[in-house]
Design brief:
Chain A: It holds the Pfam family PmbA_TldD_2nd. Chain A: This is TldD/PmbA family protein. Chain A: Residues 223-438 form the Metalloprotease TldD/E C-terminal domain. The structure holds 2 protein chains of 2 kinds. Chain A is an alpha+beta fold. Chain A has helices at residues 6-18, 75-91, 116-119, 123-140, 201-214, 232-235, 243-248, 253-258, 322-328, 348-353, 406-409; strands at residues 24-40, 43-61, 64-70, 143-159, 164-179, 186-193, 225-230, 283-285, 307-311, 314-315, 340-341, 357-361, 364-371, 376-381, 385-389, 392-396, 399-404, 413-416, 420-422, 425-427, 430-441. The mean pLDDT of chain A is 96. Chain B is an alpha+beta fold. Chain B is globular, with a radius of gyration of 24 Å. In chain B, helix 4 (165-181) packs parallel to helix 5 (273-289). In chain B, the strands form 6 sheets. In chain B, strands 11, 12, 19, 20, 21, 22, 23, 24, 25 and 28 form a 10-stranded mixed sheet that branches. In chain B, strands 1, 2, 3, 4, 5, 6, 7 and 8 form an 8-stranded mixed sheet that branches. In chain B, strands 15-14-13-18 form a 4-stranded antiparallel sheet. Chain B folds into 2 domains: 10-215, PmbA/TldD fold, CATH 3.30.2290; 296-544, no CATH class. Classes of the chains: A alpha+beta, B alpha+beta. The interface between A and B is large, with 109 and 86 residues.
């Protein structure tokens, strides 16, 4: 049931629209199936499975709208769901930001966001992968905690103006933290894939175990400004806020125009078109990228296409709601799903080789906003931080707290490595000068 | 930014921009009238639960519990003169947890029939047996006698769902109008209401019916100086509470004046949203021109609405026994307060520091009669006279620390998530000697008074933290002398609590709430309160957070 075909989904959605008596009606089906396994202390701690399809119906009477949901699809339930959305709409206040529903749209056909190998994952597969991870830690006499989650899903949309959309997708992600038995070393690895045939939990666990062993007996350095090499897991996270995600999450036109964003201009307006970053910074989104294939339409039905957000350090586009795009007279762009930061060919190891003095940061953690005016964030290094001298890692160092803005960080760019996939994005390791560490932490 | 977070509900997405994550909104969107319709009665639920317990035992479970949950939520979101969204949701289903072959298994279903629940129970046993093949330690449960057929209801005066939506919208739009009249550029306001109708049954012989309510009114105002491009925000000083709509009754007796010269008011069991927004409008404009702090060591005087979050992060979390033991290592982290560290008797804080865990406190977010594994709730000491004396633990953890009793702090955010150890209310006890905020401040030569919670960050073992706030005032020679900006303090948990120099008396004590505390993988949300009175900490490192772009 969770993965309906295009025909099965559209048959249900057509029926939903046939029950509508509203001025406009929008219906979306979301289906998802998958499971997860959690481990700690080298054994499975919990396991779960999820299997659900839900229908969301939004009805409009003039500028009033109401939304209802259900997860059964017999005629009577569908009819009740539509009636409920209409009853709620009639009671709702008029929205001054009402926009008529979109008509038919052209979406790029995408089949690569779905992989049969991932959709076929079963409890045995999960136990085998997690078992390989914990067995490796048993052999090495280290302790691991990990999380594996997989899903296969689909989204189908249809509205009374003739819009029709459908796409399937899959995703599997794994993360593991490995600690030495004395509690003095810790390492982490995380990755995600559309196609599970690329996934190997033991390979990732080995990386985390090596970081754990090599981070034992860390020395303290004085806090201050340092040249750092930030690995992809220090720039993006599957589980927490991250410096690059907050930057990309701040490219909203409305906040900028309203004067409450780092992109707001003195006296009014926004900084689109201005060079705000080092000229080597180029970030774009493309749902057809082979490494991060994504859904080619947004939740409100707008097409997701290739869009350049930052080019050679210049802000080229901002995303917005449909209402704000019309009001501000700007291109009608939804926020992207995944995005791609262009990079070079160097690996993290290559970046280390080219560094006279610096710090390798493998992961940043508990990142929270300090000042939205400058996009200043604070957080800490975690799971392996190392001192670099003359192109070599010399010794592990104690963790630091940082206070830094991704805007300042991308102006202090020294070098860019080769992008890798993380959280459905492509992000390169970065070498940054004058990264601000403000205090030491005893945490391992 | 997780690309799979595909939001199909456009209206909810608009509301979610204000508070980005509100997991309570899982469930079907329903007509608001549905939130007042009764659910199944206790006799029906007992029959359904027995079907699950019997099926689990028949399949080979040595223990089973069944949770039948009906979770009702309503959120109202506004900005300036408009309503952005009103969403009412209902989620109804059953979670069955079992022990088979000494291993946990869990399965859930929204087919709330005897057959549906029995099937979930059988699946839970099947999962337990499969996982038992790789299990290294058998589950040991602390004993808990069956409580028979019992009920517990939160002592609320008015169910917030009974209040017409129009009245609630009028309140929020009235708050917005006041702020706009007073010259702020933007305001978002919201009202969250939660009702958990939970039925728990176990093979120990408990059949527990509970009715729990939570409410959270909140806003954020923003002021902009167009000429300089500077903008500042101030969020409400309300707390989410385990109360009904009476929390919005704005009783004079529940107001606690902040220190002279601060224009801060604290709230106990009721909240004056209109009064707070008026103060916020004044303060947010003052923030635009406030003096930027000179970094250095200051004596901090922390208001309960601020200190609550510091207690949450630096005491509540590190004393969760599952973190201490390594079960959260891959996500939230572990803890400095290990069993070995506790055995050394190192002071957690100064002798003034007495911190209790409490699942009974009326009006608090964590108060219930029984937890989500049927344990009768209680109050217990965590830190006594500055020394760590106990942790927060549930039935399968008590034996690890040589105890025979759970603390009753097991919780699941819904019927479809497995219950696990969560933070109880964790509160700093007020000072025993009479001491007002003004008297406390009189003794401070160079300090900063902080109210409201702002930026917060702490490492994965809970040593190093950094906190901001909503409003900051300079204290010079025993008096508040004006507002400061760009303030954040950094400290080490033990140094900070050992620098605790004075705590105001009980008349100043009030609750702060964390409405949406995340833990676990997949992540679950829980709500918890933290009480304290205004407290002084000496010689804390303050940094200046102002930066320049370009």
């Amino acid at each position: 049931m969770p993965i309906l075909s295009k025909d099965e989904a559209q048959t249900i959605l057509k029926k939903v629209l046939s029950f509508s008596t509203a001025d406009e009606c929008d219906a979306t089906l979301n289906g998802r199936t998958g499971g997860n396994v959690r481990s700690a202390r080298n054994t499975i701690s919990t396991a779960g499975a999820l299997d659900n399809v839900s229908l969301v119906v939004t009805s409009y009477f003039g500028k009033k709208s109401g939304t209802a949901t259900c997860n059964e699809f017999d005629d009577a339930t569908l009819r009740r769901c539509v009636q409920r959305a209409e009853e709620i709409a009639k009671l709702a206040p008029e929205s001054p930001e009402y926009m008529p529903l979109l008509g038919p749209q052209q979406y790029t056909e995408s089949t690569k966001a779905f992989a049969a190998s991932t959709a076929a994952i079963d409890p045995d597969y999960r136990a085998r992968q997690v078992g390989a991870s914990t067995a490796l830690c048993d052999q090495r006499k280290v302790t691991s905690a990990g999380f594996l989650e997989d899903m296969a899903g689909f989204v189908a949309k249809r509205n009374s103006k003739g819009l029709e959309a459908y796409q399937q997708y899959t995703n599997v992600e794994f993360s593991v933290t490995v600690r030495t038995p004395d509690g003095k070393g810790s390492g982490y690895a995380a990755a995600d894939y559309t196609d599970a045939s690329k996934f190997d939990a033991a390979r990732l666990t080995r990386i985390a175990a090596e970081k754990a062993s090599s981070s034992v007996n860390a020395k303290a350095l004085e806090p201050g400004k340092y040249t750092v090499i930030l690995e992809p897991n220090a720039l993006l996270s599957n589980v927490d806020t991250s410096l690059m995600a907050v930057l990309m999450g701040s490219l909203d036109a409305r906040s900028a125009d309203e004067g409450r964003s780092f992109l707001s201009k003195k006296g009014g307006g926004n900084k689109k078109g201005e060079k705000l970053f080092d000229e080597r910074v180029t970030i774009y989104s493309d749902p057809m990228n082979a490494e991060i294939p994504d859904i080619t339409f947004a939740g409100d039905g707008r097409p997701q296409k290739r869009v350049t957000w930052i080019e050679k350090g210049v802000v080229k586009n901002l995303y917005s709601s449909r209402y704000w795009a019309q009001k501000a007279g700007i291109p009608d762009l939804p926020p992207p799903g995944g995005w791609i930061m262009e990079g070079g060919t160097q690996s993290t190891a290559d970046l280390i080789k080219g560094t006279a003095k610096g710090i390798l940061v493998t992961r940043l953690w508990y990142i929270r906003p300090v000042d939205p005016q400058t996009l200043l964030y604070t957080g800490l290094t975690r799971d392996g931080t190392f001192y670099i001298e003359n192109g070599q890692i010399k010794f592990p160092i104690k963790n630091f707290r940082f206070n830094e803005s991704p805007v300042i960080m991308l102006n202090n760019l020294e070098a860019i490595g080769k992008p890798v996939r993380l959280g459905g994005n492509l992000i390169p390791p970065l070498k940054i000068r004058d990264f601000t560490f403000t205090s030491l932490s005893d945490a391992v | 930014m997780k690309r799979r977070d595909f939001v199909g509900i456009s209206g909810l997405a608009a509301g979610a921009l204000f508070l980005p994550s509100f997991p309570g909104f899982a469930g079907d969107l329903v007509d608001p009238a549905r939130l007042l319709e009764p659910g199944a009665d206790a006799a029906q639920k007992k029959r359904l639960a027995d079907a699950g317990l019997n099926a689990a035992k028949a399949a080979g479970a040595s223990y089973a519990d069944v949770r039948i949950g009906r979770y009702l939520n309503q959120g109202i979101f506004t900005r300036e003169k408009q309503v952005q969204n009103i969403a009412s949701t209902e989620s109804y289903g059953v979670g069955v947890r079992v022990i088979a072959n000494g291993t946990w298994g869990f399965a859930a279903t929204n087919t709330v029939t005897e057959a549906g629940i029995a099937k979930a129970a059988q699946l839970a046993v099947q999962i337990a047996k499969a996982n038992s093949k790789v299990q290294k330690e058998k589950v040991q449960l602390a004993p808990e006698k069956g409580h028979g057929e019992v009920a517990w209801k939160a002592p609320i005066q008015q169910n917030a769902f009974e209040v017409p939506i129009k009245d609630k919208v009028d309140l929020l739009l009235g708050v917005n109008a006041k702020a706009l009249d007073l010259g702020v550029n933007f305001i978002n306001s919201a009202l969250f209401q939660v009702n958990e109708q939970k039925y728990f049954a176990s093979t120990d012989g408990s059949y527990i019916d509970q009715d729990i309510h939570r409410i959270y009114p909140t806003f954020s105002v923003t002021a902009i100086d167009r000429a300089s491009g500077k903008f500042r925000s101030r969020q409400s000083l309300s707390s989410p509470m385990g109360l009904g709509y009476e929390y919005l009754s704005a009783k004079a007796a529940d107001k606690v004046a902040g220190p002279a010269g601060s224009n801060v008011v604290g709230y106990k069991n009721s909240y004056d949203m209109l009064e707070d927004v008026a103060a916020a409008a004044k303060q947010v404009k003052e923030k635009l021109t406030a003096k930027s702090v000179t970094p250095g060591k200051y004596d901090l005087v922390l208001d309960p609405h601020h200190l609550g979050l510091t207690i949450h992060e630096s005491v509540g979390h590190p004393l969760e026994l599952d973190r201490v033991l390594g079960y959260e290592a891959n996500y939230a982290g572990t803890s400095f307060a290990t069993l070995e560290w506790k055995a050394k008797g190192i002071p957690y804080g100064s002798k003034l520091v007495n911190i209790v865990a409490d699942k009974l406190q009326p009006g608090s977010l964590g108060a219930v009669g029984y937890d989500d594994e049927g344990v009768k709730t209680k109050r217990w000491d965590l830190i006594k006279d500055g020394k760590l004396v106990d942790y927060e633990k549930i039935r399968d953890q008590a034996h690890i620390v040589g105890q025979k009793e759970s603390d009753g702090c097991c919780y699941s955010q819904s019927w479809q998530d497995v219950q696990f150890q969560r933070m109880p209310n964790v509160s700093l006890q007020p000072g025993k000697a009479k001491l007002s905020v003004d008297e406390l401040i009189k003794g401070v030569d160079k300090g900063i008074y902080i109210a409201g919670n702002g930026s917060f960050s702490i490492d994965q073992q809970r040593y190093n933290f950094q906190f901001g706030g909503q409003v900051f005032y300079a204290i010079e020679k025993g008096q508040i002398t004006g507002m400061l900006e760009d303030v954040a303090y950094q400290a080490n948990t033990q140094e900070f609590w050992n620098s605790c120099a004075a705590i105001c008396d009980e008349s100043d004590y009030r609750l702060f709430g964390a409405f949406n505390d995340g833990k676990g993988q997949p992540s679950q949300s829980s709500a918890v309160s933290h009480g304290s009175a205004t407290t002084r900490f000496n010689g804390v490192n303050v940094i200046n957070t102002a930066r320049k772009l370009g």
